[in-house]
Amino acid sequence: MFNQFISEVRDVDIQTDAMRFRRNMERIGEVFAYEISKTLPYEKKTITTPLGEVEMNAIKQQPVLATILRAGLPLHQGLLNYFDKADNAFISAFRKHDLDGNFEIQIDYMSSPVLKNRILIIVDPMLATGKSMVLSYKALITMGMPKHIHIVSAIASVDGLEYIQKHIPNTKCSIWLGAIDQELTAQSYIVPGLGDAGDLAYGSKLQE
User: Fold this and answer.
1) E strands within the chain?
2) For the segment 170-195, what is each residue's pLDDT rounded down to a tens digit?
3) SS3 61
4) From CA 175, how far away is CA 30, in angstroms rounded?
5) One-character DSSP codes across 101-146
6) pTM assigned to the model
7) Are 149 and 180 in contact (CB under 8 A)?
8) What is the CB neighbour count within 10 angstroms for residue 139?
9) Which domains does the chain possess?
10) Distance between CA 207 and CA 100 in Å, rounded?
11) Alpha-carbon span 62 to 160, nearest angstrom
């Protein structure tokens, strides 16, 4: 079903339904959450039932879920559906365009708990150049160096993946991608990609 969800968020006929687009992104996040949960540390916990006690495996340390606004919100919600006790961080990163059509990535806002020795999951549905992710990573680690980082994207470009691998230490980082596309346009859009995930989820915006 995972490939079905990826197919639907790409499909121009299905993309006209914003609610379905958001829900598919959410379901993609849920699949990623399940797979990431297999890598987390667990500990034994005694649970009292109405008829007795039983030992169960419980997550030893809840992760911190960090999202790059606004496009990352549905994907974030999917992970939060599984890691419902997780702390959360939010980053406002955007492309600041100039008159020539070039742009630079800027961060306007960040809200985060202390991250030292935590497990950090950073969510962004599209990993195009990778620069937003790296800039967000650098901003987040000012709140303390995490024990391990998981990067989650629905679709990435080859260039974006290589940029991440170059600028974030791979000893502390796991990368989870739904699909990897080969082409990145001169305007830094992934091809075939899916378009603008933020616009598809929440409507078009005024270009800066």
Assistant:
1) 42-49, 52-59, 64-69, 87-97, 103-111, 119-123, 126-127, 148-157, 173-181, 183-184, 190-191
2) 778 999 999 999 998 878 889 999 99
3) coil
4) 16
5) S-EEEEEEEEE----TT-EEEEE-SEESSSHHHHHHHHHHGGG---
6) 0.90
7) no
8) 17
9) 2-193 (3.40.50.2020)
10) 14
11) 28
**3-state SS class at 152:** strand
How many CB atoms neighbour CB 204 within 10 A?
9
Q: Encoding tokens for residue 94? A: 């955007």
Give the span between the Cα atoms of 102 and 96, in whole angstroms: 8
How far apart (Å, rounded) are the C-alpha atoms in residues 96 and 145? 28
Give 10-15 contacts, CB < 8 A, sequence gap 24+: 10/155, 10/192, 10/193, 10/194, 15/194, 15/195, 15/200
pLDDT, tens digit, 9 for 90 and up, residues 2-22: 999 999 999 999 999 999 999
